[in-house]
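ok, trying the design again with the full structure, not the truncated one.
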């Protein structure tokens, strides 16, 4: 996961010709924790994200989180967004899912 703000992720995506995988969650959300503990820790998921994406996690309640929640109209947690290097939304998944489901969705 990239440490930093969305603008840094967009710049890295542009430089590396990748998309941004943008995970929006909150610390008190059980499905968010499930993703963090059971899905994002898997090697196959990490490899898929690293290959095509700059991955960024933002806490919706801290730092730039509230502004990004408003900008991308996030209404539930977790929300997983795929953005192009200009910050334009290309895809959206809402709620926790099995690793296989996430990998299949990323292929689309």
């Amino acid at each position: 996961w990239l440490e930093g703000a969305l603008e840094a992720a967009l710049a890295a995506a542009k430089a590396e010709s990748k998309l941004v995988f943008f995970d929006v969650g909150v610390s008190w959300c059980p499905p968010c924790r499930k993703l963090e503990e059971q899905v994002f820790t898997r090697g196959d998921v990490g490899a898929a994200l690293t290959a095509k994406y700059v991955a960024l996690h933002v806490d919706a309640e801290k730092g730039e989180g509230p502004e990004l929640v408003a900008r991308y109209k996030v209404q539930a947690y977790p929300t997983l967004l795929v953005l192009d290097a200009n910050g334009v939304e290309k895809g959206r998944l809402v709620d926790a899912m099995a690793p296989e489901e996430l990998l299949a969705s990323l292929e689309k």
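Keeping the full-length input from now on. The longest strand covers residues 19-25.
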